[in-house]
Amino acid sequence: MLDLIPEGYRFVLFLTFDLDVDSAERLRGEEPISLSRGRFTERIGLKKVLEALDIFGLKTTFFVPGWVAEKYPYLVSEIKRRGHEIAAHGYMHERLDRLSYYEELSVFKKMVAALERVVGERPRGFRAPYWRFSFNTIDNIVNNNFLYDSSLMDDERPYVIEIENKKVVELPVDWRLDDWVYLESNRCITPEDLLKMWLEELKYASEVSGYVALTFHPQCIGRGARIRVLERIIENARRLGAWVPRGQELANKVLESKKK
Asked: Which terminus of the chain has a lower count of CB atoms within 10 Å, N or C?
């Protein structure tokens, strides 16, 4: 990992946000209250997240479904205007492992086209909705010329996947480093407990020149005082010497290190 970390830093923090809004709920045909939880992102959640990032001068990565870009282009435009990266996250937050071969092909085609149309450039990063792959997904990532993926959980460090002379950087993740798991799906711990656990991850990474990928959702971390968790994570990451790159920056750094 030392060859990935710029001089003056001690570890890598890949700070990411999944901008799902109400895409998954719409796809499942859920009722109005469930839909409203997703739309919290539009009304206030994203605003609070962007303001927190601005305070610390950070430019991060937002993974966005194509449908969200089409439905809420003003949200995506604002994220880009502030210097953040827009990466791909399915078309309507589909579970790829439940799709046929041709259905998944269609998702990738619509996803890339929608994001390119709204953002003005093709996305270079991909994250599978629900972190679920089919046995065709990695081929679709490669065939759509993505620079990196951020879905797999088989390492604590970024690495390179090579298929038919094409390379894709993997920026690995972990269920335990996702706010949704604790604060929404299971509601099993308090925000303070979550913060304590994640600060231990940052501390460990700083001690071993490591890598941590954290995943936040604006409708989750942006609700109420939970935004303080994000702020304190950033404060402590800086104190511990974190380099906080966007996905493309980190992926390019990984590829450069492999040439040495």
From this structure: C
Write the class of the CATH domain 2-259. Answer: alpha beta
**What is the C-alpha separation between 105 and 90, in angstroms, rounded?**
11
Alpha helices in 156-217 (DSSP H): 179-180, 191-208
> What global pTM score does this model have?
0.97
Q: Tell me how far apart the alpha carbons of residues 161 and 141 are, in angstroms, rounded to a whole number.
A: 11
- Say if strands 11-18 and 242-243 run parallel, antiparallel, or are unpaired: parallel
pLDDT at residue number 232:
98
DSSP for 9-61, written as a single string: --EEEEEEEE--TTHHHHHHT--HHHHHHHHHIIIIIHHHHHHHHHHHT---E
Contact 142, 164 (CB under 8 A): yes
The residue among 77, 72, 41 whose CA lies nearest residue 218 is: 41
Stretch 180-190: mean pLDDT, rounded? 83
Tokens linked to 239: 């104190």
pLDDT for 260: 66
